Structures are given as structure tokens and as C-alpha cells.
Amino acid sequence: MMGVLNHLSTLLLLSLLLPALSHVVEKFSDVKDCEKFFLEGTTPNLPGILVGGTVQDQNRYKPICQFYKDRYRFATLHDTTNRIPVFSAYTFTGKVVGRPSQSWMIEPQLEDLKKQPDMKVDNKAVTHQAVDTDYENNNKHLDRGHLFPCSHALDDAAKRSTFTLTNAVPQNEKFNRGSWKTMECRVRKYLVENCKDNNNKIKAYVVTGAVPSSSNTLNNRVNIPDLMWTAYCCYNNNLKQWVAQAHWSKNVQDTNKKH
């Protein structure tokens, strides 16, 4: 009898633990540690894509609770048709200097929900997402452009978690390394200096995304977006009020005359 009870208790424990390891989910709210990346658990409203927290076309758009090193790091809504993220959402809580040497990873569960709930390095031709070989030796001068930037991550593990291709889009290299990078640095500086919670800890909610093009692709597989956008909100402890700001730009080469 005791053996049966032990067996049942093990099954019960597993039934409680397994959903928490889920990576690709139906709703971000399915995983509490994933829901926290959005202010009050409220996701963006994107007509025809995500409304009221519900994905409109669940065969195409997949919410991912990005899981790395035993922890949820950020949230992504991924477009399996265009093979790029719609957006990535994260909580900014500070940063450390440096960029790790990290190979780019994929999300195994986009290909098969039974696979491991963790990012992994894989350059094979997969169906629903980009792989590193899509970007290699491309003649369009395109970078793997982070949505959740490595420079906004709090520690080494968080930085490494941003190197998943479900968190990247083909981005013009001069734009990615130029005005967009400058904007990311200025936003980071503002958040560090102004955004504090009730415990005087740095905290801001950030969502960064891309608007896909109609037909421009990389390697005939991966959509090259027309636009990049980012928005944040936080409690500004200097102004004693909530603030929000947004930036957007065309995904084109920077020029001296116009960013």
C-alpha cells in the first residue's frame, strides 16, 4: 500500500511540475513566471495576431516562454510562417557590462512539443524558425538583430539566453550597429537612472518587435522586416509617476542625413 501511495504521490508531483517546464504555450498567462514579463500580466493588443491575451491564429503564432538555465528569462510571440518573432517582452532590472561568446540557439519545441524545454544549438534545416545557416554568408549585409538586446540583460546567463534565433530578426547591419544600437543604449541609461519600484530596485517593462515585409526574405525562408519598434513603461521615481516611451525606425541602412 505504501508503495502505491508513493507511486501516486510521484505522479501527482510530476503532473504539477511538467506544465511549469512548458516552453511553447497557448497563452503567456499559462505560466506565471512568464506572465510577469508584462505589466500586470497584460500583453500587447495586435489586431489579427494577439487580442486580449489570446492568439488569433494558433497554428501560425506561438507564444514562447523563453527558458534557459532552469529559469524563464523573457517572453516571445513567434511567427512560424515568417520564421521571425512578432515581439519579445522582458523586465529590465539592470545590466552588466560585456557580451558573452555564445552560439545562436533555436527553440526545439517549435518543431516538436515533445522535445526538451530548453534552447539548444542546432544548425539543421528546421521548419518553423530560422537557423544560423540562414544568416551565414548572406550577401544582403544583414545581422541577427536581437529584440531583447544582450546589453539590457542583468547577468551572464540572461545575456546568453538572448542568443536564440526566436529573439532575432534579419536587421540591416549598419542600422543594427548604428542608430538602433544608440537608441538601445540611451533607453538603457534612462531606465537605470529613472525607473525604480517601491523597493528602490531598477524595474521597467519593455516590448520590442518587428513589422514583417510583404515578400522580402533571407535565404528564401526568413522574413526581412520593414520596421523595428520598441516601447517601455516604468514608474519614474524622480517624477513620481508612471511614464512610457516608444521608438520605431525603418529597417534600412543608416545614412548621415537621416536615422
TrEMBL record:
Domain DNA/RNA non-specific endonuclease/pyrophosphatase/phosphodiesterase: residue ranges: 70-255
SUPFAM superfamilies: His-Me finger endonucleases
Keyword annotations of the record: Signal
UniProt xrefs under SMART domains: Endonuclease_NS, NUC
Listed Gene3D superfamilies: Extracellular Endonuclease, subunit A
Signal peptide location: 1-22
Pfam (any one): Endonuclease_NS
Domain ENPP1-3/EXOG-like endonuclease/phosphodiesterase: 71-254
Keyword Signal among UniProt keywords: yes
Protein name, as recorded: Endonuclease domain-containing 1 protein-like isoform X2
Taxonomic lineage of the native organism: Eukaryota, Metazoa, Chordata, Craniata, Vertebrata
Gene that encodes it: LOC123728771
